[in-house]
Amino acid sequence: MTLNLNPLETNLVNLVIVIGLLFWFLRGFLGGILERRRAAILQELQDAESRLKTATENLSQAQSELAAAQQKAEKIRADGQARAAGIRAEGEKRTISVMAAIKAGADADAEADAARIKDSLRREAALAAIDKALAVLPARLDASAQAKLIDSTIKNLENA
Fold first, then answer.
1. Which of 27, 46, 113, 128 has a CA between 20 and 30 Å from the CA of residue 145?
2. Transmembrane region positions?
């Protein structure tokens, strides 16, 4: 074997030896680092899967709670509409009864006014008839007829 003094070939051999030695000595060190990194990645994946599972369960629970809340809201809305309809109907009944009372009061007032007007007209008619009778009576009655009328009126009053 001859000694190779070619620097390029010699460096390649030296590099192969150095790389081999580095690989041999650092294999445990780099392997440990890589193994720890692999374990950390696996742990992170497991944590992510568990968080995904928890999030999925929470989402499912939230969706069921949302559905229950929507049903409750719908029931509350329906109850509110029913209550509003009842209140509206009650208000209409009260309005009708108040209107009937007002109409009855107005009818009573109208009847009272009509009765008052009738009485007033009767009184005026009676006064007019009396005035006319008093105006015509002295010319038609002489003293003897007047005495007879007075006597018959007194007898009627005594019998009554």
1. 128
2. 15-35
The residue extents of the domains of the chain are 9-118
pLDDT at 140 over 90: no
Written in H, E and C, the secondary structure of 87-106 is HHHHHHHHHHHHHHHHHHHH
Place of tokens 């009627």: 156
Residues in the chain, total: 160
- Cβ-defined contacts of 85-94 (< 8 Å, 24+): none
Residue 141, C-beta contacts closer than 8 angstroms, at least 6 positions apart: 149
Neighbour count for residue 23 (Cβ, 10 Å) = 10
Q: Please say whether the beta carbons of 149 and 141 come within 8 A.
A: yes
Q: Is 67 exposed, middle or buried (0-12, 13-18, 19+ CB in 10 A)?
A: exposed
pTM for this model (two decimals): 0.42
**Residue 39 — φ and ψ, nearest 5°?**
-65, -40
